[in-house]
Design a protein that fits this description.
Blueprint lengths: L8 H25 L18 E7 L3 H12 L7 E7 L4 H11 L5 E5 L9 H12 L4 E6 L2 E2 L5 H10 L4 E4 L1 E3 L1 H27 L11 E4 H6 L15 H4 L8 E4 L6 E3 L4 H15 L6 H27 L4 H28 L8 H21 L9
Parallel strand pairs: 1-2, 1-4, 2-3, 6-9, 7-10
Antiparallel strand pairs: 4-8, 5-10, 6-8
């Protein structure tokens, strides 16, 4: 082992590239990941909030619906609102839940999806029926397996609508039980997806949203001719559709604790797999801005790791480059993990900081495997197979 400051030119070049990568990660890439911390929560409810129609999609999920509907009906909202239940499947238990609650809540309504509707996505048909049935100018969407803990959830939307926003996107995360089933890595994968979603939107490139927690002006639905542009797809009722009319000026992101929706998925692992395949399949119809930034960050992280190993190998037995790279690695990983942890706290998806480096390095391979899986299962994404 030696300690000398006379390095071959190739080692100097590799050290310089290594340092440039660290600077990029510590500046632009870090700022993209932690962009969500710039979203300011508006705790003041606007007294001039507009009337709102809440559309709840339910598919044979009476037990969870029985918990959700009272949470919505008891919202502390400063204007009139109605709740429209879209019953997909016609479950008798679901009807019983509705009948019981409708006795004491005159603003609760129900409609059904026809049993013979096989040539269109059930979710798209449900949303179409709900929007057409809504009597107010603004509609907010969620699903039966959602959990809304705050009575100011609806006010979070109404406040943004009152400011003139036409599209409002909220955050939805698995509840604690589902997070345990999913495990640390799948939670990290969800975290990466949420960061891409919300950071892209803050840069004016709305990438994705979820009908678990979103709302928009009803007229936008009709002006865009509903789902007519992608009726052949089973999915796209949220991200592809909203992408048609959402922009930096008419959209708002809400990430306060009051606006958060937790999800009690029946089968969390299966749901994660389906959603990941769906998002991969429909991504060519959405903005690539945020995905490209995240993909480039993964690529240069691997380049950094390879350069570090090659530089040390070429420098042996001289340990000075190895020591230099060690001190470069400290800010590299500290900056990266800190940005991810800040975003995780804001987005309510907590992941172990010690495991994050491994997850960051593994996720590109995980995505690649899912691209293959999505390609093999591509027929499931179309209504007519």
């Amino acid at each position: 082992m030696t300690f000398i400051f006379d390095f071959p030119l190739i080692v100097l070049i590799l050290l310089a590239v290594n340092l440039l990568i660290v600077i990029y990660i510590a500046t632009f890439h870090r700022s993209f990941i932690s962009k969500v911390k710039n979203i300011k929560s508006d705790n003041e409810t606007d007294s001039l909030v507009p009337p709102v129609s809440v559309i709840v999609y339910c598919r044979d999920n009476a037990e969870r619906l029985a918990k959700l509907l009272p949470q919505i009906l008891k919202q502390n909202y400063a204007a009139d609102f109605e709740v429209i239940l879209i019953n997909d499947g016609g479950s008798e238990d679901t009807k019983d839940v509705f009948n019981y609650l409708s006795l004491t809540h005159k603003n609760l309504y129900q409609t059904f999806i026809p049993q013979c509707a096989d040539n269109i996505s059930p979710k798209k048909l449900a949303i179409t029926l709900g929007v057409k049935a809504a009597q107010y100018d603004y509609v907010v969407f969620t699903n039966a397996d959602a959990i809304i803990e705050s009575d100011k959830w609806l006010s979070s939307f109404g406040t943004e609508f009152a400011k003139g926003k036409d599209v409002v996107i909220g955050n939805s995360v698995p509840n604690n039980k589902c997070k345990k089933i999913l495990g640390q890595f799948k939670c990290f994968d969800m975290l990466a997806d949420r960061i891409t979603t919300f950071s892209s939107a803050l840069f004016g490139r709305l990438y994705r949203c979820s009908t678990y927690n979103m709302g928009y002006r009803k007229s936008l639905f009709f002006d865009s001719k509903g789902f007519s542009r992608h009726l052949n797809l089973n999915y796209g009722d949220d991200d592809i559709f909203v992408r048609l009319f959402a922009n930096a000026d008419n959209s708002a992101i809400i990430l306060s604790n009051e606006s958060l929706v937790s999800c009690d998925y029946t089968m969390p692992t299966k749901y994660h797999s389906i959603m990941k395949q769906r998002n991969i399949y429909t991504r060519h119809l959405t903005s690539p801005f945020g995905r490209n930034i995240m993909a480039f960050g993964s690529l240069i992280t691997w380049i950094w790791l390879i350069i570090t190993g090659v530089t040390i190998w070429l420098s042996l037995p001289n340990l000075i480059p190895a020591i230099a790279l060690f001190f470069i690695a400290i800010p590299f990983w500290w900056t990266t993990i800190y940005a991810w942890k800040k975003a995780a706290k804001i987005l309510n998806i907590h992941v172990s900081a010690w495991l994050m480096p491994l997850f960051i390095l593994y996720r590109p391979f995980y995505n690649f495997l899912y691209r293959i899986k999505t390609h093999n299962n591509r027929r499931q994404f179309f209504v007519l197979r």
